C-alpha cells in the first residue's frame, strides 16, 4: 500500500566492490598483463645492467626502478578497473585537460635529454612525458564527443573530435614525436570508423596523412633520416637497427642462453625501445611468440566483450583504448625487425619507462572497467528488435 502511494523504493546495488569487481572483470586479460609485466622484469634483469654500469649506478638500478614504476602501474590499473564507466569518464576528462596543458607547455619548460626531441619534463629524480598520459584521456574524451553526437539534438561531436585530434597531432609533430602522433591519429580513426564514418571520408583523411608525411620528410631532418634508414636496402651494422637485426638473427628458435646475449652491450635503448631484440637473442623465437600471443589475447578478448556492449560511449572508448594498446605493441616489435621505421615507442608493460608504464596501467585499467560484465542483453537483440 505504501508503494502505491509513495512509489516503489529503487533497489540499490549493495554488493561489495571487490567481490563485484572480481566477478565481472576479464580475469584472462588481467592474467596476460601480469605475465607481460613479469616478462618485462625478467628481460630488464638481462638488458639494463650494462647501461647501469655505464652510467655509474648499481647493476639492478633500472630493474628496481622498473619494479617500482610497474607496481604503481598495476595499482593504478586495478583501482581504475574498479570504477564505473561514468567515474572513469569524469576522471579522464580532468586527466586529459592536465596532460593537454602539460603538452602545450613543453616548448617552454620541457627538455630533450640530448635526444633531439623535446618530449619530457625533468623532475629531478626522473622525467615525465605528458603525451603518454594524454592518450587514455584523449580516447575517452573523443569517445564521449562521438557518442553525444549520435543523440537527438546532440552536439557536433564528430567534427569537434576531428579538430581536437588535428591540434594534438600538430603539437606532437612539432616536438617532433611522429610515433605518438600516428598512434593518436590511428586511435581516433578506429573510433571514427566504429561510430559509422563513411569509408570515403577515411580515405580522404588517409590521403591527407600521406601528404603531411611527405611534407614532413621534406622539412624535417629527423623524420627524413629515419625514413631513409628504413628504406635503405642495407642496414648499417653499427646502428641500433643493425644491432637489433643481428641479435634477432643470432637468437634463432631457442636463443643463445640466459645472460649470454651481446646486443645489450651495444644498444643504448636495449631496455626500452629494443627490449624485444634482447628477448629474441637470449630466449629465442619461443619467448617472442609467447609475448605476441599475450598481446593478441588481450586485444581479442577485449574486442569480443565490447561486441556485446550496448552503450555507444563504452563501445567507442573501449575500441579506441584496445586499438592503441595493440598497435603500440605492434609498432615496437615491427621497428625491431625493420617492418616499420624507427619510432621511439616502448613495448607496453615490458619496456622500462616510468611515464609509459604508469600511463599504460591507467589505460588498461580503463579498458578493464569498460569491458566488465554488466546486466544487459546482447547487441544482436537490438538488431532483431527484441526488448531488453
Quickly count the domains. 1
Radius of gyration: 22 Å
Global structural class: mainly alpha
Query: What is the total tally of β strands?
Result: 2
Report the β-strand fraction as a percent range: under 5%
Q: What pattern of helices and strands is seen along the backbone?
A: HHHHHHHEEHHHHHHHHHH
Number of helices: 17
C-alpha termini separation: 29 Å
Largest sheet: 2 strands, antiparallel
Could you explain how this protein is built, in words?
It is a single chain. It is built from 17 helices and 2 strands. A two-stranded antiparallel ribbon has the order 1-2. It has one domain. With 388 residues, the protein is mainly alpha-helical.
Topology:
Blueprint: H1 2-6, H2 17-24, H3 27-47, H4 49-54, H5 61-81, H6 85-104, H7 106-109, E1 121-122, E2 127-128, H8 130-149, H9 157-173, H10 178-194, H11 199-219, H12 221-231, H13 240-251, H14 275-307, H15 312-336, H16 354-370, H17 379-383
Antiparallel strand pairs: 1-2
In brief:
By secondary structure, the protein is mainly alpha-helical. The protein contains 17 helices and 2 strands.
Amino acid at each position: 500500500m505504501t508503494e502505491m502511494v509513495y512509489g516503489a523504493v529503487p533497489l540499490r546495488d549493495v554488493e561489495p566492490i571487490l567481490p563485484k569487481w572480481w566477478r565481472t572483470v576479464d580475469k584472462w586479460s588481467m592474467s596476460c598483463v601480469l605475465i607481460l609485466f613479469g616478462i618485462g622484469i625478467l628481460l630488464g634483469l638481462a638488458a639494463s645492467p650494462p647501461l647501469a654500469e655505464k652510467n655509474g649506478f648499481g647493476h639492478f638500478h633500472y630493474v628496481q626502478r622498473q619494479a617500482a614504476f610497474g607496481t604503481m602501474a598495476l595499482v593504478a590499473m586495478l583501482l581504475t578497473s574498479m570504477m564505473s564507466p561514468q567515474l572513469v569518464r569524469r576522471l579522464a576528462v580532468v586527466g586529459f585537460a592536465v596532460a593537454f596543458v602539460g603538452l602545450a607547455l613543453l616548448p617552454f619548460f620541457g627538455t630533450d635529454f640530448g635526444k633531439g626531441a623535446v618530449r619530457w619534463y625533468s623532475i629531478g629524480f626522473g622525467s615525465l612525458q605528458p603525451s603518454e598520459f594524454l592518450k587514455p584521456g584523449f580516447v575517452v574524451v573523443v569517445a564521449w564527443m562521438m557518442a553525444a553526437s549520435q543523440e537527438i539534438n546532440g552536439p557536433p561531436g564528430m567534427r569537434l573530435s576531428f579538430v581536437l585530434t588535428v591540434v594534438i597531432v600538430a603539437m606532437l609533430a612539432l616536438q617532433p614525436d611522429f610515433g605518438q602522433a600516428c598512434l593518436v591519429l590511428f586511435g581516433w580513426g578506429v573510433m571514427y570508423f566504429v561510430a559509422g564514418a563513411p569509408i570515403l571520408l577515411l580515405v580522404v583523411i588517409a590521403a591527407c596523412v600521406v601528404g603531411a608525411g611527405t611534407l614532413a620528410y621534406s622539412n624535417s631532418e629527423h623524420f627524413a633520416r629515419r625514413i631513409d634508414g628504413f628504406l635503405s636496402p642495407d642496414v648499417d651494422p653499427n646502428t641500433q637497427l643493425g644491432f637489433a637485426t643481428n641479435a634477432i638473427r643470432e637468437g634463432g628458435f631457442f636463443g643463445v642462453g640466459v645472460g649470454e646475449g651481446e646486443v645489450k652491450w651495444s644498444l643504448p635503448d636495449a631496455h626500452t625501445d629494443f627490449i624485444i631484440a634482447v628477448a629474441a637473442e637470449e630466449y629465442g623465437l619461443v619467448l617472442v611468440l609467447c609475448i605476441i600471443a599475450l598481446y593478441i589475447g588481450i586485444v581479442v578478448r577485449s574486442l569480443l566483450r565490447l561486441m556485446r556492449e550496448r552503450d555507444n560511449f563504452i563501445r567507442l572508448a573501449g575500441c579506441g583504448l584496445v586499438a592503441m594498446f595493440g598497435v603500440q605493441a605492434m609498432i615496437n616489435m615491427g621497428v625491431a625487425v625493420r617492418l616499420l621505421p624507427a619510432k621511439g615507442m616502448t613495448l607496453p608493460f615490458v619496456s622500462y619507462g616510468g611515464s609509459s608504464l604508469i600511463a599504460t596501467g591507467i589505460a588498461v585499467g580503463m579498458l578493464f572497467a569498460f569491458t566488465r560484465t554488466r546486466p544487459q542483453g546482447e547487441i544482436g537483440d537490438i538488431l532483431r528488435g527484441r526488448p531488453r
